[in-house]
Design brief:
This protein is an alpha+beta fold. It has 3 domains: about 1-50; about 50-225, NADH Oxidase (3-Layer(aba) Sandwich), CATH 3.40.109.10; about 235-450, NADH Oxidase. The chain is about 30% helix and about 20% strand. The chain contains 11 helices and 15 strands. The strands form 3 sheets. Strands 1-4-3-2-5-7-6 form a 7-stranded antiparallel sheet, covered by helices on one side. A hairpin with a 4-residue loop joins strand 3 (about 130-135) and strand 4. Bound molecules: flavin mononucleotide (FMN). The site of flavin mononucleotide has 19 residues, from helix 10.
Length: about 450
């Protein structure tokens, strides 16, 4: 294992040295020279890598307060891929990111909802000196391994901190459903990083294979964290026409919303059209802002409320209420709901017009509930179903459950803001759900989200 690491480092250094010749800016040359110097040091460290048996624990400071409203944080969510490598992140900010990701709330529960009762994620934090695991109970970092492994775990994006999201298969043995929680965590990290001036991106292609993790720890996602090289710039640019009620900003920050999230298993009350529009927008809608940051650093002009691997956005959302079943169309470009050609539309600056297509009249909540893992959701005034409209290789199927988890997390936060609560339920009878939603074979229901009072 050490040899592989060493070989890769040499390969990486050679690659960097060759790259220096092709880079003209003096700033970039200096950066690369410093990175090479740092790499030489890290090779020395990696050669002495040792698993620490006497655990070293670093207690994190309290999370900081946040100024940005929760809805602005979603509206301006974006992926950042270039970071100021030598600008370190203050401990308070790292603490805030880790708390929102997987920390403990004032009532003793976690910041993210546990899908089916198991918190099956371990967060690894890759810093310049060592790799740590985050321990929510003590809000601390425990040393896992010394050495600078940041560019091994993430060869795509160079950043001062790399956050590794790892699936603990001893706690949940389902490769797809365990990714729901990873998606929730990643979404909280995106929103908080945004709110406190840091950049972040989800990386599904990682170097976890080269890191000696315990056998039941399966590396899934790496999120590089740092100050962006180019500050993202947004311009408020909503549509002139809107078929669904417009989403309004509310002066409540993400931390407050997360602390206020309620978990209940019984649902009742009413959800009006305005609430419905906002909940669906949070699940998979488009931002009202245009990203006018330099196009070379970010090619997506109108971001959506969640990230998607390769910008594919293959999920389709349905709302089931006492009045019927409705398909959510987040963009007028997706007008033909039965076409698979939804890809890349978020790269284009076209007016976003979202609306609902009635799929069936009548109350089908009971039928949906019967086809789910929790019958008592039948009384929920709103049931949202996410489905996958895409046949993907099975080894990356978990990507789409991850996306559904990020989206469900938004619905939960939005529900809290609207004084509702939401849950997450497994679809069991796929055939019945597909037939109720009038979907042909090939669609896969991923997650059911009941919402109510
Ligand atoms: C599961 C998943 C895997 C991803 N993997 C990568 C990756 O390996 N490299 C990368 O640069 N971006 C990756 N992304 C980020 C997407 O490319 C990004 O979300 C998408 O292009 C939309 O851009 P936005 O997040 O800026 O709106 C991934 C996103 C998800 C959800």
């Amino acid at each position: 294992m050490k040899k592989i690491v060493y070989f890769n480092q040499i390969f990486f250094l050679t690659f960097l040295l060759i790259s220096v010749g092709s880079i003209t800016s003096i700033g970039d040359c200096n950066l690369i020279r410093d990175i090479i110097a740092e790499d030489v040091q890290s090779i020395a460290l990696i050669n002495q890598v040792q698993n620490i048996t006497n655990k070293t624990e670093i207690f994190l400071p309290d999370p900081i307060s946040v100024d940005m409203s929760y809805r602005t944080a979603i509206m301006t969510r974006c992926s950042v891929r270039r970071f100021n490598y030598f600008e370190s992140i203050e401990d308070e900010k790292l603490s805030t990111i880790l708390w929102v990701a997987y920390g403990i709330r004032d009532d003793g529960s976690r910041t993210v909802h546990s899908f089916e009762g198991s918190h099956s994620t371990v967060i690894y934090v890759f810093r310049d000196d060592a790799v740590y695991t985050y321990h929510p109970k003590n809000h601390s970092l425990i040393l896992f391994q010394t050495g600078n492994l940041r560019r091994i775990v993430n060869w795509q994006h160079i950043a001062p901190i790399q956050i590794g999201l790892v699936w603990d298969s001893n706690k949940n043995d389902d490769a797809n459903y365990s990714s729901i929680e990873l998606g929730e965590i990643s979404q909280d990290i995106y929103l908080m990083a945004n709110a406190i001036g840091l950049g972040i991106v989800t990386s599904g292609l990682t170097g976890f294979d080269e890191i000696d993790l315990p056998e039941h720890h399966i590396g899934r996602i790496v999120m590089p964290l740092g100050y962006p090289q180019t500050e993202p710039v947004f311009e408020y640019n909503p549509n002139l026409i809107s078929f669904l009620p417009r989403v309004q900003d509310v002066d409540i920050d993400l931390k407050t919303v997360i602390e206020g999230r309620k978990i209940k298993t019984s649902f009742n009350g009413d959800v009006d059209k305005k609430d419905l529009g906002q909940l669906l927008w949070a699940s998979y809608g488009f931002s009202y802002y245009l990203d006018i940051t330099d196009i070379t650093t970010n090619e997506v002009e109108r971001h959506r409320t969640v990230p998607s691997a390769s910008c594919v956005y293959p999920l389709v959302y349905f709302a089931i209420t006492s009045n019927g079943i409705f398909r959510y169309v987040p963009h007028v470009l997706h007008l033909n709901p039965y076409s698979d050609n939804q890809f890349y539309s978020s790269n284009w600056d076209l007016p976003v017009l979202s609306f609902l297509i009635p799929v069936g009249g009548g109350d089908f909540r009971e039928e949906i509930a019967q086809a789910s893992s929790q019958y008592d959701i039948a009384s929920a005034p709103l049931i949202i179903v996410s489905t996958l409209q895409f046949s993907s290789p099975s080894d990356i199927q978990w990507y789409w459950y991850f996306e559904a988890g990020a989206s469900a997390n938004n619905v939960m936060l939005e529900s809290t803001l609207l004084n509702f609560h939401a849950g997450m339920v497994k679809p069991i009878d796929m055939q019945s759900i597909n037939s109720l939603l009038r979907l042909y074979a090939g669609y896969l229901p991923l997650l059911i989200i009941p919402v109510g009072e």
